[in-house]
Design goal:
CATH class of chain A: Alpha Beta
CATH architecture of chain A: 3-Layer(aba) Sandwich
Helix content of chain A: 25-40%
Order of helices and strands of chain A: EEHEHEHEHEEEHEHEHEHHEEEHHH
Number of helices of chain A: 12
Radius of gyration of chain A: 18 Å
CATH superfamily of chain A: Ribokinase
Structural class of chain A: alpha/beta
Oligomer: homodimer
Strand content of chain A: 15-25%
Strand order of the largest sheet of chain A: 6-5-1-9-10-11-12-13-14
Largest sheet of chain A: 9 strands, mixed
């Protein structure tokens, strides 16, 4: 096996984030589940957009946020995902490539515009996401760049990919390539509702193919249908080599075989917007893990990156993350 | 004269801001004058965009920032400016109307996309702007909504409008309507280079038609070709009823007839990005001035709004500005 060209290659839904403040009353009026991700069609996306206040736009998408973070740490990263060649698609492509992420997926050629995620940030800094997948649903098996996956130490897939049917097929195709290449497969469960939609398939996949699992506490409890975190972590421990469970302000628990590492959270200077916290924890962890760091060190990198991202609006770093780990990196 | 429907109506270049961090070396390499605004064509805009790092997008444009600020204070505001009905134009229209600003200018129907301003923020928080006017150049006399100007207590024009030839004609047409309606005309000089490009015409216009002039110290010195601020302020004092000169951290000087009011700056919690400081000072001042406040009080509102805007990225308020002035407003 040749040395990997990339530390991490990711496949994800390519989405531009549209971020606006909203009140709890607004969420209630519009039937939006706080803290979750709801899929919406073009009409509902348009209705919600006309109802929200002034917004800020920036590139997002869970797995893309993670590889952007890895590149910001100084790691080598690649991304696959579908945009249209429209203005938002151009912005999306610019931001990933400008961060140093290899992104070669050709744009779609249908009328469907680039996907977007309306992120409503309530005064408690919690984010509630409303995703119009747009062109992201057109990502298919043909968009999986086998050479890049074979050249990546770890391939990182987001659970959200199970929502668009073509992407789910691409997901399985990618997992097969990674297994065949003898590389590692990482998965993030993405969202409690996403787990509820695809539980059985997730469990099968994790048991069969996943080396590194990322989940927050609620997602892991939902996956294994238990209220006891230790029970859930022990189930995950049996299913994959490393299970990383994030717990917001309580930090994270990393389970690997018989080893269990507790990681303390790094408090942000000011808690502004939790968007991207999980994505950036994964970025820090994967950067550390692919650079010879211990589980505890890698977890600390994750906590540092998550702390940076929740101290401002949006899911992409506002400063080079490599600065956070200084000489240690 | 009937009571005004709007506190302020503004005409300006409708631009989406693309905000990215940049080093001083980057500015030097690309021949960008720090702190200024340079007009760029589509090719240079595209070249610069491909050279900058990951960015954030939000609606901008000098006069539009000001009316968005006035609406955020709780004032009644209108805007006229040209976008195309493309994705960025849709974002632009959404943000202004969602802020409560009346914005009825029909979109352009040419191939030219919505204009944008690449804003490079250096580590000292200074912003350097590179503007591709795009559809904004198609704003013409026919886009001046006479009824709205007649119904506005103050019409606010940005000096940048002198750059697109059609907009300059619209500018003069608007000034004539305001004079005929017996309303007040306000002008911001926008930029030192803009003053250099149009000095003689600005002086003629200010002497003939402008009631309230906004300028920063360097713009005012450039206008009157002097190095002495008192000389420049006294010249402005003779040309218009109120001359507001902003001086960054030194606050502002308001000259009105024989009266001179010094306004202290309000230090930001953290200086992040100076984009929109002048625009928001004007917003606070005009909101106060149209709500029965003294020159000193209005100036303080301006200082409060400017302080909010420079404490984060971008030229639009992240919280309702009316909260800054509390019961006093």
């Amino acid at each position: 096996m040749t040395a990997p060209t990339y530390d991490v290659a990711a496949i994800g839904n390519a989405l531009v984030d549209i971020i606006a403040d909203a009140s709890d009353a607004f969420l209630q009026t519009h039937g939006i589940a706080k803290g979750g991700m709801m899929l919406v069609d073009a009409d509902r996306a348009s209705m919600l957009y006309s109802a929200i206040g002034p917004a800020v736009e920036m590139s997002g998408g869970s797995a893309a946020n993670t590889v952007a973070g890895i590149a910001s740490f100084g790691g080598k990263a690649a991304f696959m995902g579908k945009v249209k060649a429209d203005q938002l698609g151009g912005i999306y492509r610019h931001d990933l490539t400008a961060q140093g992420v290899h992104f070669a997926t050709p744009p779609s050629h249908t009328e469907t515009p680039t996907g977007r995620c309306l992120i409503l940030v309530t005064p408690d800094a919690e984010r509630s996401m409303n995703t119009y997948l747009g062109a992201a649903v057109e990502f298919g098996v043909g968009d999986v760049d086998e050479a890049t996956l074979r050249a990546a130490s770890i391939t990182y897939l987001e659970g959200y990919l199970f929502d668009p049917p073509e992407a789910k097929r691409a997901f399985r195709h990618a997992a097969a390539i990674v297994r065949d290449a003898g590389r590692q497969l990482a998965l993030t469960l993405s969202d409690v509702f996403c787990v509820e939609r695809h539980r059985a398939e997730f469990i099968d996949l994790i048991a069969a193919d996943v080396d590194i699992l990322f989940a927050n506490q609620n997602e892991l409890l939902a996956l294994y249908q238990t209220q006891d975190l230790n029970t859930a972590i022990d189930a995950a421990r049996k299913h994959c080599k490393i299970a990383v469970t994030t717990r917001s302000a309580k930090g994270a628990i990393i389970a690997a075989g018989n080893e269990t590492v507790e990681v303390a959270a790094v408090p942000p200077v000011k808690l502004v917007d939790t968007t991207g916290a999980g994505d950036l924890f994964a970025a820090g962890f994967l950067y550390g893990h692919t650079h010879g760091k211990t589980l505890a060190e890698s977890g600390h990198y994750g906590a540092l990156a998550a702390s940076e991202i929740i101290s401002h609006y949006g899911p992409r770093a506002q400063r080079a993350l490599k600065g956070l780990v200084g000489q240690a990196a």
